[in-house]
Design brief:
The longest helix has 10 residues. Helix content is about 30%, strand content about 5%. Strand 1 and strand 2 form a beta hairpin. It is built from 3 helices and 2 strands.
């Protein structure tokens, strides 16, 4: 049986800006990669029909942590910060 086509799949820019607007940009790449790898289906095999609702319910938590293990995508700099980090449309960290 073919999987349903996902309606209103966001662009990377929409996804990242929504995460950033809610102060959860730290989960944007991990969450994006998770759904891209699963062809926009959740852990139960159901299609992600409302991506904003899914982000809020699964990835955005009041304590500032998601319930999905965080995978670090930041490259340490000599100062210990990530001032040259910018996400790119492929969902991977990009370093200037």
């Amino acid at each position: 049986m073919a999987k349903k086509k996902i309606p209103n799949k966001p662009t990377w820019e929409e996804w990242y800006m929504f995460c950033k607007s809610r102060n959860f940009e730290h989960v944007a790449i991990t969450a994006w990669d998770y759904y891209e790898a699963g062809d926009w289906h959740d852990s139960n095999g159901k299609p992600v029909l409302n991506w904003k609702q899914k982000l809020i319910a699964v990835w955005f938590k009041k304590d500032g942590k998601s319930n999905i293990p965080k995978v670090s995508t930041l490259k340490p700099s000599s100062t210990g910060g990530a001032e040259n980090f910018t996400p790119n449309p492929e969902g991977r960290a990009k370093w200037d």
